Amino acid sequence: MAWLLAALLVLSTAARAGQGCEEAPLSAREALRSIELAQRTVDALERSGASVALVARAGQDLRRYGLRYSHMGIAVREHPAGRWTVVHALNDCGSDRSMLYNEGMGNFFLTELFRYEGQLLLPGPSAQAALARLFAQQPALPPALHAPRYNMLSYAYSTRYQNSNQWVLETWAAAAAPQQVASRPQAQQWLRSAGFVPITVEIPAVTRLGARLTRANVAFDDHPFERRMAGRIDTVTVESIVRFVLAGDPEARVMVVE
Asked: What contacts 258, CB < 8 A, 6 or more positions away?
């Protein structure tokens, strides 16, 4: 066990994208709990029979906004008997940039977690097949669907920035409508027509100003002026993705991993 804890402690320093790089690494106990959660998530995926799923983690305390999960990625099985990997967009050390990562389930959860709990959104068979085709045809995914300019609270219908969950949603759109969606504007147009509704979080002016002055990964200038001035920020969250997928895919289901 000692060698495992040591290895986890080393690994924990590399899995903190979206946070300041100067922050301390996870403790051995935190790292071990994260790895155990990752294993339970893989076990749940194995039992589900799925080949593709959307997986979410609770990295921040968002209860004041009525949200439980903070970050989502797309879990893909490499082949019927292969390992699970997670593709997701990560903010780089609290900067205004993001990159796409393809990594194991352990790394996905090997970060500071507010709650040691995961959520799996399992699409129906046809939606899983569509996502699998997208990843098989374009392993790196269409570059036009990822915007490196990151904003934690990006407006759901603007291409100026992109948050991590927005990338998942727009990739979902590309899989659902491959003949119509090959870019972010096309993805957002399709999402509007398909009935996607972002979640609105209430953020007062003083909080917006403080965040904009002190955090490079937060901006509000892509939001409609009237909504922004009223403190109503319409953004893509894990909950809004789950709500949209469940409404459009009667075979989709949600599993909580504790």
From this structure: 40, 116, 117
